Amino acid sequence: MVIYLNVLRVMSINKLALDSHKNIRFGIQTFFHIGDSIIPYAHSHNFYEIFFVTEGSAIHWCNSVQTPIESGSLIFIRPEDTHQYLDSTQDFAFYNLVFSKDTFDKIFSLYDRKLIEENLLDRDLPPGIKLNQGDIEIYKRKFQRDISTLDLKIRSLHNVELLTSLLPLFITSNFYKVNRQPDWFQKLTMEIERDANYTKGVNYLYSIATRSREHVSRNFKKYLNVTPTEYINHKKLIYASNLLIQTNLEILDISDMAGFPSHSHFYNLFKKEYKTSPRKYREKNLLSYI
After folding, report:
1. Predicted TM-score (pTM) above 0.85
2. Which of 48, 118, 241, 290 lies 20 to 30 A from 247 at CA?
3. Residue 110 pLDDT > 80
4. Helices 101-108 and 152-170: angle between axes, nearest 10 degrees
5. Are residues 143 and 19 in the same domain?
6. Dihedral Cα 102, 104, 106, 109, nearest 10 deg
7. Contact criterion met (CB below 8 Å) for 23 and 46
8. Mean pLDDT score across all residues of the chain
9. Percentage of the chain surpassing pLDDT 90?
């Protein structure tokens, strides 16, 4: 039997077990697992998952390879991975964040697809990192905030912020090393992702870069093949598109929350990126919450 604690509501055990293996077409959802609630058998799913161990330890069996995991372990599970947890301690517990293939593709569309495939998708084992104690406490609070938030709109905002702060950790661990980006540049892109700082705009990026604007611009073109403005706008559009399909917020409010200087600017950039208007995008992809 599987028990999931959903951030939207606590549902019956059987209903949750069924819902957890349905197709996740759009959006992001957060869950918590502990003790007997953890799936005891090898399984896979048709969505992406990031799990974060908060307490205890276990053996993570994945694709026929066993790896010890403990508090601070952060693992990126892909749809084709088969995994389970073995020999877990009594206090073993973890959060996980699940998100659709559509969401993954939107977030990573800015990066070189070949490098993403080589360093995140085509590896025999899923990417994993070990957080330091300070980051463990930070992400405990972030996940707990999502679990305890019942308001749908706020919960959706938290989920988007959480995912966009977690994914750069894996990019830095894999993609950035292969691409030989300098440390200051890696830290800059991580900081701009943290807590949706990209909504503060390109001037905020320049202000925390500790480098001249010209130097920053050259590095963005060199390593990401975009200008800083294009990078920031892309992140804002991902943020806005997730709010469109996960909340009932007014489109003008979403434009403001994503940090666009004018509604017409948001509309024009959105239509250029997604080949449709924000309203039609929402109608096509709207996520229905039961």
Report:
1. no
2. 48
3. no
4. 60
5. yes
6. -130
7. yes
8. 79
9. 29
Between 30 and 268, residue with greater pLDDT: 268
Look up residue 103 and give its two tokens: 């969401």
Note whether residue 56 is domain-resident. yes
Amino acid present at 204: Y
Q: For residue 175, tell me if it sits in a domain.
A: no
What interhelical angle do 152-170 and 133-148 show, nearest 10?
A: 150
Among 166-175, 221-230, 278-287, the range of highest mean pLDDT? 221-230
What's 185's domain CATH number?
Answer: 1.10.10.60
| Domain that includes residue 217, residue range | 181-290
Residues 145 and 206 in one domain: no
Is residue 209 within 8 Å of 188, Cβ to Cβ? yes
Residue 90 belongs to a domain with what CATH number?
A: 2.60.120.280
